[in-house]
Amino acid sequence: WHEEFEIGLVSSGDGTYRIDGTDYHISEGDIVVISPKTLHSGGTGNQTMSTDSFVFHTGFLCSSIPDGTNINYFNPVIDGKIIFKPVISPGHPGHTLLLDCFLRLKDCHAKKLPYYELQLKELLLHFFYLLFTYHCVVEQKKTSIIDENEEKTRMILSYIAEHFDEEITIDSLAGMSGFSSCHFMNTFKKYVGISCNKYINHLRLDTAAKRLEE
Q1: 88 pairs with which residues across the strands?
Q2: Most CB contacts within 10 A, which of 43, 107, 130, 203?
Q3: Does the model's pTM come out above 0.85?
Q4: Can you list the residues of the chain whose pLDDT is less than 70?
């Protein structure tokens, strides 16, 4: 999870994304939309999948002076009051225009022609316009228990990121969460998609590989 907004396009292959506790099978041509502070993970099993992604803070698009755009659209996204449809597949009424906008974003960022930052901002705003226009908005209706479980999972992920090179036990993480070990393991897997031990091992291996590469 992260504070930023993320949009992605599956350019080839297929795989599975877990977004907000739900599994989505994604394949070539799918557009993935991940709202801020949304727990998510992805994997491909034995398959190969390539994606292009833009990760940006919604503040990049907000005016420094509160206006209707901030109040009606971006503030509810930042506050988690609304989220967007996580996967937009070919056949969705807005897919063609969203795909065109994404490809123009990719081209603009790759070429970096003079004043390209202005065009990037324009295209990102247009992408949001299309999300709202084609009814890709989902009202966030969560219970306080779900909110608490997600917040605790985020807290644990942050702790692991800072202490992964130290000894970490399930019992200690469960104690931090205020859960029993069994409930902690079930909750973690529900939101992250894999077991806690597997997540820690993946993080350690990924970090070791990057250090060796550097």
Answers
A1: 31
A2: 130
A3: no
A4: 45, 64, 66, 140-147
Residue type, 77: V
At 121, list the tokens: 């901002």
Write the pLDDT tens digit of every residue in 80-100: 788 899 999 999 999 999 999
Task: Indicate the helix (H) or strand (E) that contains 105.
Answer: helix 95-111
Token output for 131: 């999300």
Measured CA to CA, the distance from residue 153 to residue 33 in angstroms comes to 21
Measure CA 39 to chain center.
7
- Cβ–Cβ under 8 Å, residues 94 and 42: no
Alpha-carbon distance 132 to 82, whole Å?
A: 11
